[in-house]
Design goal:
Chain A: This is Brix domain-containing protein. Chain A: One of its GO terms (biological process) is rRNA processing. Chain A: Pfam families: Brix. The complex is a heterodimer. Chain A has eight helices and eleven strands. Chain A has helices at 45-57, 74-84, 122-128, 155-167, 212-220, 232-237, 306-316, 329-345; strands spanning 35-39, 88-94, 99-105, 111-120, 144-148, 183-190, 195-207, 253-255, 269-276, 280-289, 297-300. In chain A, strands 1, 2, 3, 4, 5, 6, 7, 8, 9, 10 and 11 form an eleven-stranded mixed β-sheet that branches. In chain A, a hairpin with a 4-residue loop joins β6 (183-190) and β7. The N and C termini of chain A lie far apart (74 Å). Chain B has helices at residues 4-15, 37-57, 63-84, 94-108, 113-117, 124-142, 148-154, 159-191, 200-231, 244-271, 279-302, 339-347, 355-364, and one strand at residues 307-309. In chain B, α2 (37-57) packs across α6 (124-142), α4 (94-108) crosses α7 (148-154) and α4 runs parallel beside α8. Classes of the chains: A alpha+beta, B mainly alpha. At the A-B interface, α1, β4, α3, β5 and α4 of A face α9, α10, β1, α12 and α13 of B. β5 of chain A pairs antiparallel with β1 (307-309) of chain B.
Chain lengths: 346, 366
């Protein structure tokens, strides 16, 4: 049928069955927090990569392929977030001074504005390592979160801890499977410099007390070379020199409840080994606002109070900034203010 | 008498009318370059005159008709010529005429042997050319080349062949000459620089434009580089080795993970034997959870200030003992929301945050 040959040959595609992520956690009964990671304004290349890395970090409870257009404003995202059950927004933006990241709780939650002093992409980190590790289903489960150094008692710090704890779903100690805890996000606060280190690691368990060769043999199923040995006992008992990181393993040993693969048996000691994946950031908390990018300023790093902010906002609403200004005049005002503030401080 | 000879004769006489070298035709390039320029110009002169003649006579299909027509006009003009006495009077015999004819043919031939052979029987067009050729041949003779005639006329027996050959060779010679000339031009133009064989005035302009473009490109390149630098601001590549700070951070994270795993193992190993389905066991489970929760709270208060890991009990709150963290109070936010509640939180700075219970309250904070 030459005449009616359709150009698009319809190939039979097996429908991909996607596991539906429930809105409610089965165990705790609470709502599972979901997030959107997007950018305000056009970002240069490395920052776009950073946005992608952050999206991967927030998996599985985030929109990996979120497509944003230039004309989308914050309101659009809010409108979509409601029905989809999205609870947090992570917004990346950039000014001439530096990139900024805002963490906000929808729909009316507080907004934390962080200035990204330094950052490294996941690809950079992988390149710097000898053996980068990324198992297949690393991003199937949400990460753990560890907050350290936030205990000084200041308000904004407390708010930060609450915010970050709520971004990731809760873990029930009684029912969690250890095999599902594969990633960890670390936020370390340094009192002196007021900087927050943001790291992302992958967790690996290794049996303790087993020599390296035997462990590798069991893991990789590679038949070792016994040419030079007289007896199998030589292979088993030979003391190989340990790597430098093995010294610290004493403190890192845990006793597993269940078996994790062939190597880690229950009720035997295993060591926890972390390897860095994912982006690395150094953040500085700059501002905390009551609303979603609006509202009164609860905390501001550079000391500008709430009243001053109101005055400045009216002035800078007219000016144009890098970001699209559809209906987010207030947001633009925030960005402009940050610029001016930073300019003053520099 | 009307025959070919007479016709040619008349032709020749008529050819003398136009003075030599006057008429230079515009189509010189179509013909191969002749050694003798004067001959060429004479040829051209004849050409124009011949065209006139043919137009006067009209289109004659057969040679005979034209002859008649021509004869008439020539007769009239013949007398005039004789009287005027302009130009030389040259008498040509039959051999000369043949020679003229041949030369004209050669000159007009486009290297087509067939045409030369079957010339006479062809229709109008070819006849026209034929007559032209004759004219040319006469013209040449009308010039100063009377010496060549006997030589050429000798080898006239094989008419077509010999006529063709010199035509071909002449054409080839012309081609060769043309090629030489063309090559010399190309060589000259190749010597010019990039701009090519153009006039010097425009050369300057083009050079100027190129210089402008280059400067523009440079500017654009610099602007691009600047933009790239701004985009890369803050982006650092991590070093290959593990920094001491990095090691410290990894240690902190490891401690947190270890704590969590220990808590998990504690909680889960205790449960191992119990079956959640049976109600009896369920009570035991509940009890154990309570204890674990409280113990965890208690230990957290006394734990080190550095690490706090997020370990969550299943969210049940026991009301018997007031929890150390303010939002866990039953009457949190129900009393007057003063800052003193925040003060209460400050009393227990080293708390591990019991994350999930705060979840509901954080939304109330707005």
């Amino acid at each position: 049928m030459a005449r009616f040959r359709d150009k698009k040959r319809k190939v039979f595609v097996k429908p991909i069955v996607q596991k539906k992520l429930g809105a409610v956690d089965h165990v705790t009964g609470d709502k599972i927090p979901k997030s959107f990671v997007f950018s305000r304004g056009k970002l240069p290349g490395p920052l776009r990569q950073l946005q992608m890395d952050l999206r991967k970090l927030m998996l599985p409870f985030t929109a990996l392929n979120l497509k944003e257009k230039k004309r989308n404003s914050l309101k659009d995202f809010l409108n979509v977030a409601g029905p989809m059950g999205v609870t947090h927004f992570l917004m990346l933006s950039k000014t001439d001074a530096s990139p900024y990241m805002k963490v906000a709780r929808t729909p009316q939650g507080p907004t934390l504005t962080f200035k990204i002093n330094k950052y490294s992409l996941a690809s950079d980190v992988a390149q710097s390592q000898l053996r980068p590790r990324c198992p297949k289903d690393l991003f199937k489960n949400p990460p753990l979160i560890v907050l350290s150094g936030f205990g000084t008692g200041e308000q904004h710090l407390k708010l930060t801890t609450i915010m970050f704890q709520n971004i990731f779903p809760a873990i029930d100690v009684n029912t969690v499977k250890l095999s599902s805890c594969q990633r960890i996000v670390l936020l370390n606060y340094n009192k002196d410099t007021k900087l927050i280190d943001f790291r992302h690691y992958s967790i690996r368990l290794q049996p303790v007390g087993v020599s390296r060769r035997i462990r590798k043999f069991v893991q990789n199923h590679q038949i070792p070379d016994l040419r030079n040995l007289q007896d199998v006992s030589d292979f088993v008992t030979r003391a190989g020199y340990g790597s430098e990181s093995e010294v610290d393993e004493e403190a890192a040993t845990v006793t597993l409840v269940s078996n994790l693969g062939r190597t880690n048996k229950a009720s035997s000691k295993s060591a926890v080994r972390l390897q860095e994946i994912g982006p690395r950031m150094t953040l500085q908390l700059v501002r905390v606002e009551e609303g979603l990018c609006t509202g009164g300023v609860i905390f501001s790093e550079y000391g500008y109070g709430a009243e001053k902010k109101l005055d400045k906002r009216e002035d800078s609403q007219i000016e144009d900034s890098d970001h699209e200004e559809d209906e987010d005049d207030s947001d633009n005002a925030d960005e402009m203010e940050e610029d001016t503030e930073n300019g003053n401080d520099d | 008498m009307i025959d070919a000879k007479n016709w040619l004769w008349d032709d020749i006489i008529y050819a003398e009318v136009a003075p030599p070298g006057v008429l230079s035709g515009p189509d010189t390039q179509n013909y191969p370059a002749q050694d003798d320029d004067r001959a060429a110009s004479l040829y051209w002169g004849n050409f124009s005159s011949m065209t006139e003649e043919t137009s006067i006579t009209g289109s004659g299909g057969v040679l005979g008709k034209r002859k008649i027509g021509k004869k008439k006009s020539n007769n009239a003009k013949k007398k005039m010529k004789v009287f005027q006495g302009a130009g030389e009077k040259v008498k040509y015999d039959r051999k000369m005429k043949k020679l003229f004819r041949k030369r004209a043919k050669e000159y007009n031939s486009d290297d087509d042997d067939d045409d030369n052979a079957a010339d006479k029987s062809f229709p109008n067009k070819n006849h026209g050319t034929y007559s032209e050729r004759n004219g040319y041949g006469t013209r040449k003779l009308g010039a100063d080349k009377l010496d060549e005639e006997p030589e050429l006329s000798e080898g006239e027996d094989d008419d077509e062949d010999i006529e063709v050959l010199p035509a071909v060779t002449r054409f080839a010679e012309g081609c060769r000459a043309f090629r030489v000339a063309f090559k010399s031009i190309i060589k000259k133009s190749a010597l010019d620089d990039v701009l090519g064989p153009i006039l010097s005035g425009q050369k300057k302009l083009v050079a100027q434009k190129l210089a402008e473009e280059e400067s523009e490109k440079k500017l654009r390149g610099e602007a691009k580089k600047e933009k790239l630098l701004i985009g890369e601001k803050g982006h650092i590549k991590p070093s290959n080795y593990l920094d001491s700070h990095e090691k410290f951070l990894i240690g902190v994270a490891t401690k947190g993970v270890v704590k969590l795993f220990n808590a998990v193992s504690k909680a889960q190993s205790a449960q191992k034997g119990l079956n959640p389905a049976s109600s009896k066991d369920e009570k035991v489970i509940k009890k154990r959870r309570k204890e674990a929760f409280f113990s965890a709270l208690g230990t957290r208060a006394a734990s080190s200030s550095d690490t706090s890991a997020k370990v969550v009990a299943s969210g049940e709150r026991m009301g018997s003992e007031p929890p150390s963290w303010a939002p866990l109070h039953d009457n949190y936010m129900l009393t007057s929301c003063k800052l003193k509640d925040w003060d209460k939180m400050q009393e227990t700075p080293e708390d591990e945050d019991v994350g999930k219970s705060s979840h509901g309250s954080s939304s109330d904070d707005d």
